[in-house]
Design a protein that fits this description.
Layout: H1 2-21, H2 23-38, H3 43-64, H4 69-80, H5 93-109, H6 111-137, H7 145-159, H8 170-174, E1 180-182, E2 185-187
Antiparallel strand pairs: 1-2
Helix pairs in contact: 2-6, 3-6, 5-6, 6-7
Bound molecules: zinc ion (ZN) (2 copies).
Length: 193
């Protein structure tokens, strides 16, 4: 009985770790595989897809997670409990979302072009989850780029209607949703929800 409880506890702990950290293993692995399939001559497509990811990240966060009720309900769990990994995305759902996108890209654009674009999107997603993890959980010194990203994102958590970009400030500037903080005050260009 006691042994069964220990095994159940270990299994639950392992599953929790897979849910929280699986993306940090599977996403770079998949990116390397698709970069290999794309080949060196499709590097420009990879770079373009990384840039496209930053816009996708902004739009999904702003609209799917803050405007529409289902996404908003799930996402606000993270806003309310920013340090609880169980309130964030699960790594188990990533392949379910990513796989159809990868198959669609490869099926319509061919192996090299489709793999290059998919690899770029994976690299962009990896940058997003690393930066998001860091700004919530790493002790970050002031005066670094990551500290700026942290302050920007914490401002988003507080006000909700600004700073939707996590990996880049660019689209917040373009769409006028960028808000800066200094001395506990919020400045400039805060857009609507
Ligand atoms: Zn967050
Ligand atoms: Zn948000």
């Amino acid at each position: 009985m006691r042994r069964a409880a220990i095994i159940a506890g270990l299994t639950a702990g392992l599953m929790r770790r897979i849910r929280h950290f699986g993306d940090f293993v599977t996403v770079p692995l998949a990116a390397v595989i698709f970069l290999e399939l794309a080949g060196i001559y499709r590097l420009h497509l990879v770079v373009m897809a990384v840039a496209a990811w930053t816009l996708l990240e902004y739009l999904v966060h702003r609209f799917a997670f803050h405007r529409y009720s289902v996404g908003r309900r799930l996402h606000l769990l993270h806003h309310d409990h920013p340090n609880d990994p169980d309130a964030e995305r699960s790594s188990l759902s990533t392949p379910l979302i990513a796989l159809p996108i990868g198959l669609l890209l490869v099926g319509t654009l061919g192996v090299e072009d489709g793999s290059a674009i998919f690899a770029g999107l994976l690299v962009g997603y990896l940058a997003f989850i690393v930066v998001h993890y860091a700004v919530h959980r790493w002790p970050i010194e002031p005066d670094s780029w990551l500290y700026c990203a942290k302050m920007r994102h914490l401002t988003h958590h507080r006000f909700e209607n600004c700073n939707y970009g996590v990996t880049t400030i660019f689209w917040d500037i373009v769409f006028r949703t960028n808000a800066r903080t200094s001395g506990g005050r919020i400045h400039s260009g805060v857009g609507s929800k």
